[in-house]
């Protein structure tokens, strides 16, 4: 350590010197580096309490010695330092030169290296780019394939969906139709039931009404019948007097005539509805019916309408002369 | 379950009840009043025979319309209106006012026109039904001027048929026997006339009795019994030529001839075998077949309407009664029971009635029996009636009866409704025979 320290100091002294003496001429290399300083002696180990005076004295001694040595050594050191400095300066210059050469070399090398590196880099980069491009292409192709696949899949999916949708809609429509049909059937059944119920009600009501009406009608009819019988016999009498059965008449001959009268008793129409098969007989009946200018008819309009508006006269001789 | 069934059945029962009710109500509502007329007027049918308009000179004598009126009157079925009561005298349709004729109570109106051209008279005539206001007949017919009676009878026939449905018989002939006594002269005459007794012509005259004239079916011959030979002999007599033949001149009685429907044979009553029996004589061959065989008198045989059986008179029951032998040789059946005397059967052409002389309370009438029900009814009111003869249409009957001490002919409608005496000829008129319709 101390050696390195001394050395350093010497270098610094030399350098300093060199720097102090502006002698520009570099020192010759004859006095190159020489170890100058002796080996440092180890310091005696003395107990501090016991040896203080002694130590004091001795330390003075030593101090003087040391100061001498020190002066000496400083002078030497100065010399060494100057020498070293000079050498160092030369070395420094050499070193600087070498350093600069090395630096230049280094730089060239560096440059070449850099060029190589750049080339390699460029190459690598090109390769990388190519790789990347290929990669990209492949990726794009894959992507396209994937997309196509995807598209196909989607289309299939869509088709399936559409099919499913269509089927679903069909099913819905079918179900709707079925529902409507069932609804219609249900409504029809309800209507039928309703109609049946209505009809039944109506029939019951109508029956009740009919029974009432029938009772009233029976009473009225009995009255009208009595009245009508009177006029029937009057008409029979008049027609008997007016009828001249022809000589060809036989007892099995029957002619039926339908008579239509006016309320005044006048004959509105007569129609032969059933011939006797004998023209003369039919004519005799027609003549008899038409010969009455006024038929005896009831004044009661209902009785007239009921019995005498239209009726049938049958001519059938029971006792021929 | 029963309850359920009842509930289910209820609507049906209701418906059924309703239906029945408805049918009752509707049925009674629809059941039209029916009035049955079973009897006609007792009176004859009123008809107006309007005097025909004439153009050209008409032969003297009865007018055509008058003859027609008389014919229709004689039938007993018509009651022609007296022309003096007519409100108008139409001769064609445009002049006929139905209301007027209706007011007069007429059922039919006959109008017509006569046109004489040369020796011919032509009639245009129309018959109207007053109540129906319809023309039921419209024709033309002609005859020679001296034959207007023939024309008139033809019109009568047409009118009669148009109204009654039966053929008229006014153009047929009558045959009958007259008896005249002038001093101690007795004349029997066989005469043939129109049905109204007009245009009578003597076909045979004899001092001896002539009996039982009978018409051949074609109306060309008569068969009769003549005593001119001193005994009854059956003759056939061709009218057109006057040719006579002895048809039956057997020992004993030859009497009561009657022609068969085919005109080829005669039924006769002969006593050649000792007792009066009925025989059939085939005219052409003279073959004789005995049809009855009985100890009693069988006589007055006549064919029934079928032409297969005969009616005849027999006193096998103790008095004369009428029997029917339905087939020749069959067992005869007695058909008259109403009195002790029923004789001289004359069936009509339809097989409905048989007319005969019927004694009741010592009087003789003409009666008829309804073959369907056996009902016998007297149809004449006169007494001493004899010799009935039915018109070919079955609607009229002619017979002889006594009037004021003389024998006359009377025509009645077959139902006895009306009587019409033929104009009295001189002396007695007997044994009428109504001739057939000759087409």
Automatic annotation (TrEMBL), chain B:
Coiled-coil region(s): none
Domain of life (superkingdom): Bacteria
GO cellular component: periplasmic space
Domain TolB N-terminal span(s) in chain numbering: 34-135
Cross-referenced Pfam families: DUF5050, PD40, TolB_N
Domain Prolow-density lipoprotein receptor-related protein 1-like beta-propeller: start-end pairs: 272-414
Keyword Iron-sulfur: no
Subcellular location: Periplasm
InterPro entries: 6-blade_b-propeller_TolB-like, LRP1-like_beta_prop, Tol-Pal_TolB, TolB_N, WD40
GO BP annotation list: cell division; protein import
Keyword annotations of the record: Cell cycle, Cell division, Periplasm, Signal
Entry annotated with the keyword Endoplasmic reticulum: no
Family classification: Belongs to the TolB family.
Subunit text: The Tol-Pal system is composed of five core proteins: the inner membrane proteins TolA, TolQ and TolR, the periplasmic protein TolB and the outer membrane protein Pal. They form a network linking the inner and outer membranes and the peptidoglycan layer.
Function comment: Part of the Tol-Pal system, which plays a role in outer membrane invagination during cell division and is important for maintaining outer membrane integrity.
Name recorded for this polypeptide: Tol-Pal system protein TolB
């Amino acid at each position: 350590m101390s050696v390195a320290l001394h050395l350093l100091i010497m270098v610094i002294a030399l350098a300093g010197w060199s720097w102090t003496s502006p002698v520009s001429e570099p020192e010759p290399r004859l006095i190159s580096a020489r170890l100058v300083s002796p080996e440092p002696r180890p310091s005696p180990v003395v107990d501090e309490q016991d040896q203080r005076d002694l130590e004091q004295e001795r330390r003075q001694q030593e101090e003087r010695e040391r100061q001498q040595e020190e002066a000496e050594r400083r002078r030497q050191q100065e010399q060494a330092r100057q020498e070293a400095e000079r050498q160092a300066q030369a070395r420094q210059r050499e070193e600087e030169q070498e350093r600069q050469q090395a630096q230049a070399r280094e730089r060239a090398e560096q440059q070449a290296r850099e060029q190589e590196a750049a080339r390699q880099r460029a190459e690598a980069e090109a390769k990388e780019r190519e790789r990347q491009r290929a990669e990209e292409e492949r990726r794009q192709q894959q992507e396209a394939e994937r997309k196509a696949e995807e598209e196909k899949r989607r289309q299939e999916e869509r088709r399936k969906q559409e099919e499913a949708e269509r089927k679903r809609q069909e099913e819905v429509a079918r179900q709707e139709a079925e529902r409507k049909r069932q609804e219609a059937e249900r409504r029809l059944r309800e209507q039928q039931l309703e109609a049946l119920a209505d009809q039944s009600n109506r029939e019951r009501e109508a029956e009740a009404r009919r029974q009432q009406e029938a009772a009233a009608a029976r009473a009225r009819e009995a009255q009208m019948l009595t009245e009508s019988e009177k006029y029937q016999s009057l008409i029979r009498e008049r027609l008997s007097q007016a009828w001249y059965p022809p000589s060809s008449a036989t007892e099995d001959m029957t002619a039926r005539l339908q008579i239509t009268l006016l309320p005044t008793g006048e004959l509105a129409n007569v129609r032969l509805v059933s011939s006797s098969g004998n023209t003369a007989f039919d004519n005799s009946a027609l003549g008899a019916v038409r010969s009455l200018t006024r038929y005896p008819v009831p004044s009661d309009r209902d009785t007239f309408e009921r019995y005498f508006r239209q009726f049938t006269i049958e001519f059938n001789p029971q006792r021929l002369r | 379950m029963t309850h359920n069934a009842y509930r289910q059945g209820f609507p049906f029962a209701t418906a059924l009840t309703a239906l029945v009710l408805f049918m009752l109500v509707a049925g009674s509502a629809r059941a039209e009043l029916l009035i049955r007329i079973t009897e006609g007027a007792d009176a004859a049918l009123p008809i107006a025979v309007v005097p025909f308009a004439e153009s050209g000179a008409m032969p003297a004598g009865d007018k055509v319309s008058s003859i027609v009126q008389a014919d229709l009157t004689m039938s007993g079925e018509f009651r022609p209106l007296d022309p003096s009561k007519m409100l108008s005298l139409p001769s064609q349709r445009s002049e006929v006012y139905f209301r007027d004729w209706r007011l007069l109570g007429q059922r039919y109106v006959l109008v017509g026109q006569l046109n004489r051209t040369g020796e011919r008279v032509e009639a245009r005539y129309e018959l109207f039904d007053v109540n129906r206001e319809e023309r039921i007949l419209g024709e033309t017919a002609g005859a020679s001027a001296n034959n207007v009676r023939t024309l008139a009878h033809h019109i009568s026939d047409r009118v009669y048929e148009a109204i009654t449905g039966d053929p008229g018989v006014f153009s047929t002939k009558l045959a009958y026997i007259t008896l005249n006594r002038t001093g101690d002269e007795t004349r029997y005459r066989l005469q043939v006339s129109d049905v109204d007794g007009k245009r009578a012509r003597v076909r045979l005259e004899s001092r001896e009795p002539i009996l039982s004239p009978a018409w051949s079916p074609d109306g060309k011959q008569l068969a009769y019994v003549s005593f001119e030979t001193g005994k009854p002999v059956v003759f056939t007599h061709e009218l057109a030529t006057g040719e006579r033949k002895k048809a039956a001149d057997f020992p004993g009685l030859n009497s009561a001839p009657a022609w068969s429907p085919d005109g080829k044979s005669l039924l006769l009553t002969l006593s050649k075998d000792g007792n009066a029996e009925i025989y059939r004589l085939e005219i052409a061959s003279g073959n004789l077949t005995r049809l009855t065989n009985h100890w009693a008198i069988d006589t007055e045989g006549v064919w029934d309407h079928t032409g297969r059986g005969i009616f005849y008179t027999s006193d096998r029951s103790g008095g004369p009664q009428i029997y029917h032998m339905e087939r020749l040789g069959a067992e005869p059946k007695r058909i008259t029971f109403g009195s002790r005397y029923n004789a001289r059967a004359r069936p009509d052409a339809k097989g409905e009635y048989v007319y005969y002389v019927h004694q009741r309370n010592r009087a003789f009438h003409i009666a008829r029996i309804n073959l369907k029900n056996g009902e016998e009814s007297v149809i004449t009111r006169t007494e001493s009636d004899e010799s009935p003869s039915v018109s070919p249409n079955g609607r009229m009957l002619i017979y002889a009866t006594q009037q004021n001490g003389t024998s006359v002919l009377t025509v009645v409608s077959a139902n006895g409704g009306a009587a019409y005496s033929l104009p009295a000829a001189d002396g007695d008129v007997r044994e009428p025979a109504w001739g057939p319709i000759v087409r």
